[in-house]
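Sequence in, structure out.
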Amino acid sequence: MKRLYYFLSIGIAASLFVACSPKKTTEEVKQVEETAITVNPKLTAEGAYEALVEATETSPAYVLVNKPQVNLDEFPKDKDGFITLFDGQTFTGWRGYDKDTIPGKWIIDDGAIKINGSGQGEAHSRDGGDIIFAHKFKNFELSFEWKVAKGANSGVLYLAREIKGEPIWISSPEYQVLDNIGHPDAQLGENGNRQSASLYDMIPANPQNAKPVGEWNQGGIMVYKGTVIHKQNGKNVVEYHLWTDKWNELVGKSKFKAGGDFPLAYDLLVNLGGEEREGYIGLQDHGDDVWYKNIRIKILE
């Protein structure tokens, strides 16, 4: 019940925020009740208003973005079942996170997707922001290559939900992409869990076998019924299991812990992917020059 309104779309968001106002007219109460019943037909009108008010008082509010998804049948597939998500020439299938187009800082450079970093971190990137492939995935094997400029930081995010006004990492695990020598994040966190290919701020990549700045690294992420594996340069370097007590513990000890600076992140990560347990794959703009290419995915049934 407390999570009821989390799954409201933008189209009924106005009704949700009526529930947060201190004084409600009879018409406003009716509007909220009708909204709740639309979302959950089993909820009676008598209890709908109270349930929504309780939700707003006990949990961080957010609004899901609902945009059309691309048809994977329109993308080439090889004999091994891998679908090409980036053709090396166009941004077909990609768009900005919570946007309809690709932000101008993202370009195609010699067959690779490149973010032209602002040099001032993710908070100062004008005409930038994270990008996503516009299709939700559940069980998959993702393969990609990445390289970074000196001192660069980025990440590949997966099972992300699109939250209005929030960054992609608020709801998504992150495969860290980093210059382990030149970026200070490599020295933060615990036991190297912010270095490349790590589950960001939770599990360090082991072994840490990233190549030097300017060289291409082979990356990979597999998600299958809750089991997740990160790969780097031919090695499995991270393994963990979603939607388990151990997963909740990992989130609870990270920078996304309950009661910390990002309470919304804690709730979204613990309930990763929502009821469908699926989400978007995204590339992070952290304000630095980073390249990605040969991005392919295989759906695991």
